[in-house]
Fold:
Amino acid sequence: MSVINNSNGWVSVHRTLTSSSLWLSEKFTRGQAWVDMILLTNHSAGYIRVRGIRVPLARGQLGWSQKTLAERWGWSRDKVKRFLNELESDGMISQQNSKLTSILTIVNYDHYQNNQHQTGNRPTSNQHQTDTNNKVNKENKVNNENGEFTPPSLETIISFFLENVSSKVEAEKFTNHYTGNGWMMGSSKMQNWKSAAKNWIICSPSFNQTKATSHETNKNRSQKSANRTEEPKLTRTEQAKQNLLASVAAMDDRLL
Structure:
């Protein structure tokens, strides 16, 4: 009986794993976080938009902030920072930080993702991987070349919700809802998911609760200010007069 050496070669993993509920159900391990980074990395040159600013990305790079990775992995930001610094120290990644986001580069990315590694033994897998990579690299576009809507990945939606002061939970609700109805808006196919996401955020209970709390706080402040305005301060002369009248009234009461 021959022994299989699993330390050589590699296995093709579909990128939809990154949005799987099984993949995201618990806090990530360090190994899972490393694999997640490879799966999220750009397969070809492209770009992302952060606060409306276009940020170019080369093959082998991913533009995820430490805050977003912490939310995704279920870690603290300090743990993410330590992990990335350790990977950089080990020569596995390089980091480029800016005010907009962090650009992480996977060193020797071709070692983990190279179409030439896929031989003719399974040509359908090669075509499948190519189609998957092309889809992921177009995830920030609303429509593909045929004018058809391309649904964004879960991580893209989560990042958008967090940037708009919402939560990962609301992002998952949004994704589950529109995945379930085929990304339809009424009787028509969705055209702009970001617009639908903003409406979802505005209508979400957490957003309305925050807005209502803020409104109530401002209302209370205004009421207190109005009360202070309705009670003008007395001058010293007027106050002395009131004190004298009160003393006289007290003496009258005692005489009675």
Remarks:
- The chain has two domains: 14-116+132-137, 143-230.
- Residues 117-145 have pLDDT under 50 and may be disordered.
